C-alpha cells in the first residue's frame, strides 16, 4: 500500500512539473520577424544635419555591403536619422580632464516598398574619441552585422 | 478506496495548479476602458524634437516590440506623438556630483488612427541618463511592449 502511495506521489509531482514547464513555454514572448536585408541593396541616405556625410564615409570604411545612391527613387531602402553633438565645455576640460565631445546618433533603415522600418540603431558616446566619426562607424558596423547575420 | 481518494485529490490539485499557472493574469483598473494594441500592428512615429522619434524606433527594434514601424501615417493603424527634452550637465553638476551625464525627459502617446482614441501614454524622466536619449527611447519602447496584447 505504501508503495502505491509513493508511486502516486511521484506521478503527481511529475505531472505538476510538466504543467509548470508547459506554462513557462507558453509564457515565452513571440519575437517579431526580422526582414532580411539583401546584400547589394541600394540605399539612399536622407540629409541628417552634420552627420550624413560621416555616415557615407563610415559605410565605405566598414565595407557595408550596400550600394549608396543619390536618388531616392532608385533606392530600395532609405536611412533617416538624427545626431546630436556636445563639445567639451571648459568645466568638462578642467573638472573631468576630458577634451572629447559627447555624441549621440540614431538611424532608421526603411524599406521603401513596404514602408516598414527593418533596422534601427542608436548610439551614445559620452567621450567620443573621434567625434561624429565614431558614432557613424558604430551605426555602419551594426548595420553590416545585421546584413551579414542571416 | 484509498487509491481512489488519492487519485481524486491529485486530480483536483493538478487542475487547480494548471488553472492558476496557465490563466492570463489580467491587470485591469475599474473605470478605465483600456484598449490593447494587437501585436503586429502598424505604427507611425511622428517627428519629435531633436529626432527623438528615431531613438524610439531604435528602442522598439532593440526591445523586440511586436509592432511594425512604418514611414507613412496612411499605412499605419496607430500614431505615436511625443515630446522630449534634454538638460545637459552644467559645471556645478560636474564639480559637485562629478557627473557629466544629461538629464532626459520624454513623453509619448499612442493614438488609434481609426477611432482617435489614446490607447497608451507614458512619460519618463532620467536623471544622469548614462546613454542620453537612447535610454529614454528604450524606456518608452520597453513599457510599450508591456501593454501590447499577447
3D structure, described in words:
The complex is a heterodimer of chains A (150) and B (150). Chain A is built from four helices and five strands, in the order H-E-H-E-E-H-E-E-H. With 150 residues, chain A is of the alpha/beta class. Chain A has two domains: 1-30; 41-149, 2-Layer Sandwich (Double Stranded RNA Binding Domain). By secondary structure, chain B is α/β, with parallel strands linked by helices. Chain B is built from four helices and five strands. A five-stranded mixed β-sheet of chain B has the order 2-1-3-4-5, with helices on one face. In chain B, helix 2 (52-62) links the parallel strand 1 (41-45) and strand 2. The longest helix of chain B has 21 residues, at 2-22. Chain B is flat. Chain B starts with a helix and ends with a helix. Classes of the chains: A alpha/beta (150), B alpha/beta (150). At the A-B interface, helix 1, strand 3, helix 3, strand 4 and strand 5 of A face helix 1, helix 2, strand 2, helix 3 and helix 4 of B.
